[in-house]
Amino acid sequence: METASQEGLRYEVSVRSRILKLAFFCWIIAVETIKILYVTTCDCRVSGQPFNAWFFPAFQHQPYTFWWTYHGITWLAGPYSLGWWALNSPAFFGYWTFFSFLLIADGLAGFLLSRKSSLYALYYLTLSLWFTTLDPVDFFPILFAVAGRYRWYFLIAAPAVKLPIGAPGWVWAWTFTNTNSFSGPENYGRYLILSVVWLFSLLLYLRHRFPSLPSKMIRLHTPVDDSVLPSRMMGESWSPVQDTHGGTSRDERTGLVHEIRNPVNIEPTLGTNCMGASTTSGLSGDA
User: What is the rounded distance in angstroms from the CA atom of residue 219 to the CA atom of residue 254?
Assistant: First the structure.
């Protein structure tokens, strides 16, 4: 029978779990509401707004072509990959179609991520608040970067969508030298966010894909002199302690090797040989 303390602990865990779930759903509702309100009420719907003056007209022209806007500024149509053009093709039909598509894609991505990890889905939906409303040009690169935690090909797709893959060589030169692209200081913040998110997903993917990698790195950086250990200790299968499945514990071997290589409190002790003479022994003990 369960004791009163066990029942109390179980109740406390249940209450805490419900509170966290409630906070999770409240946060999602708040974030998604902000996205919808911004898209439906912001001044970005005005045709003269800089983003609208470039983004939506670009899809009325062929990729990688220049055209003059009504206020005399020359724009380059989408200096990104052909994949970017395909993913953002709903922009051809205008503001409302494109942002409706974007919000649906954002919600679907958050739902799929929540089936893997609620906390990670919360991280993505909060992050996409910026890229759905203020920087939709980079929505799919950031989405693929986040999804790269679970699939390696998304880590490749994230920069591949952003770079002008499939474009002529002069577009590459323009992308890396023009102040409206990589050379513009006002864009450094976006590139920094994209890079940090991508690297974070890469680290999470490596940790999930190779869970024993940290242990192997510890063994690799632990100095061990083979001459001071019996040959059977250096074997991969040797360990004085077996795990529950009868196998060898790598962490236990690493700890034992480190302990033997760096002994603690080993002092010589006095002994007596068969002739009565005093000798020293290498066994540990108190003098």
Answer: 6
